[in-house]
Amino acid sequence: MKYVPPEEVLSPKHSLERIIEVIHDPGPGDMCVARILWRGEERIATRWNGEDGEPKGNPTSHGQPTWFVVGEYAEQAVAEAAKKAAERSPNSLISRYREMANDPVREEEASDWSEALISDGTSQR
User: Fold this and answer.
1) What angle, 0 to 180 degrees and rounded to 10, lies between the N-to-C axes of helices 104-123 and 93-101?
2) pLDDT tens-digit profile of 51-88?
3) What pTM value is reported for the model?
4) What distance in Å separates the CA atoms of residue 35 and residue 43, rounded to the nearest whole number?
């Protein structure tokens, strides 16, 4: 296991109610950012992803990977920086769509799929 994916980091259980959205996950050994529900409030949290040999990353508590909740004064800056990094990431949805759009075969498949969805919707009236 290279690292524990941020979606699977669910500690500390007494404070973390759920992960709302992983804003940016660049992969092993790098910092990820998420929007979480923490003690009833939406907050921004970060953690360092693990990597080979240390899959739990940092921080950890009692042997479990955990989140570091960012102070309210820095939340907006951290969230916006993470969104920008995610947009530039080669793994982002936008990057993958651009890659697909530049591939004529994949673009044609996407167009055919979209047209099929449209025709399915119109035949149900």
Assistant:
1) 100
2) 988 999 999 999 999 999 999 999 999 999 999 999 88
3) 0.74
4) 6
The token pair at 11 is 């500690």
Assess contact for 70 and 45: CB atoms under 8 A.
yes
Q: Are the beta carbons of 86 and 23 closer than 8 angstroms?
A: yes
Interatomic CA distance for residues 94 and 100, integer angstroms: 10
What is the residue whose two structure tokens read 């167009």? Answer: 111
Kindly tell me the burial class for residue 122, based on how many C-beta atoms sit within 10 Å of its own C-beta (0-12, 13-18, 19 or more). exposed
> Residue 57 has what DSSP assignment?
-
**Alpha carbon 65 to its chain's center:** 16
